[in-house]
Design brief:
Order of helices and strands: HHHHHHHHHH
Number of strands: 0
Number of helices: 10
Length: 284
């Protein structure tokens, strides 16, 4: 009886050792990244067509009643604010297109100069758009309440801080730390995109509960704004931590988180594309 119990215990230990969930975790992490990139490219196409093409063919005055990122895109007589608006749009396109290129190993290994120059442009333009965004929030004024403005401003400050640490670690040849800071920077940059995705997913699931549309405020919008970068950054940090530990429970937790996040993002991307972006892309 005793030997049989020992046999079962040994079998359990062997089974625990044989279960390696890390490949699945890695696959889902890459899938989450690809989902973000695809969603951002759709967003870029929307900005290029709705703002770029429209502004080019109809003039900048045609952007007067647009809603990204300010309540009024082009404001007659507000030269500085209009410049900040245009810079914000152009640089957002550069960041969303150039960012993913930094994580392609083949480019980094075979074309290091392209990797380095794209990285410099990625960081500099990201910092510039954060500064422009802060100006648009606190000087010109935007839609939303104070909590949303504070959240978006904190996101902009994080972008500047992450850019600094990415640069300093690159200069010091700390490759792993540099790569981790660039990943954090990528997530922080994506904050404005996550807001739209999370908002549309929330509307699809709850019909917009907790949102006052007349003032574009409410507890749901406040939660979405703060969660748009804090939650992804926490998951990313947990993923980095899991790389230094051999813990199946932690890996299974990440598998569950990545699965839920991918499903949530796909819902948000679909809802945003069909109701917000595609009609304006096709309507140009």
């Amino acid at each position: 009886m005793h030997s049989g119990a020992c046999g079962y215990q040994g079998s359990d230990r062997t089974m625990q050792k044989s279960i390696n969930i890390k490949p699945l975790k890695s696959f889902l992490a890459k899938s989450a990244f690809i989902t973000i990139v695809i969603g951002q490219l759709i967003f870029v196409l929307y900005m290029l067509m709705h703002y770029g093409y429209r502004g080019y063919t109809q003039g900048l005055n045609s952007l007067t009643n647009t809603k990204l990122p300010t309540e009024n895109g082009i404001v007659p007589g507000d030269s500085l604010g209009n410049i900040a608006f245009i810079i914000h749009i152009i640089i957002a396109v550069i960041v969303f297109v150039g960012g993913p290129l930094q994580f392609i190993d083949r480019i980094r290994e075979k074309h290091p100069k392209l990797h380095h120059w794209n990285g410099r442009i990625y960081i500099i333009t990201g910092v510039l758009t954060s500064i422009a965004g802060l100006y648009l929030i606190w000087i010109r004024g935007t839609i939303g309440d104070l909590s949303q403005h504070i959240s978006t401003s904190f996101n902009g400050i994080l972008i500047i801080a992450f850019a600094y640490f990415a640069i300093t670690n690159a200069v010091q040849r700390k490759v792993l730390k540099h790569k981790q800071w660039v990943f954090r920077l990528f997530i922080a940059y994506a904050g404005v995109w996550f807001i739209r995705i999370m908002l549309m997913a929330w509307i699809a699931m709850t019909n917009g509960a907790g949102i006052d549309w007349s003032t574009f405020s409410g507890p749901a919008l406040t939660a979405i704004h703060f969660s748009s970068y804090i939650v992804p950054l926490c998951i990313l940090q947990l993923y980095f931590f899991s790389g230094t530990k051999s813990n199946n429970l932690l890996d299974m937790t990440l598998v569950a988180l990545f699965t839920a996040c991918i499903a949530f993002m796909l819902l948000g991307i679909y809802a945003a594309t069909m109701s917000l972006w595609l009609p304006k892309i096709l309507g140009v």
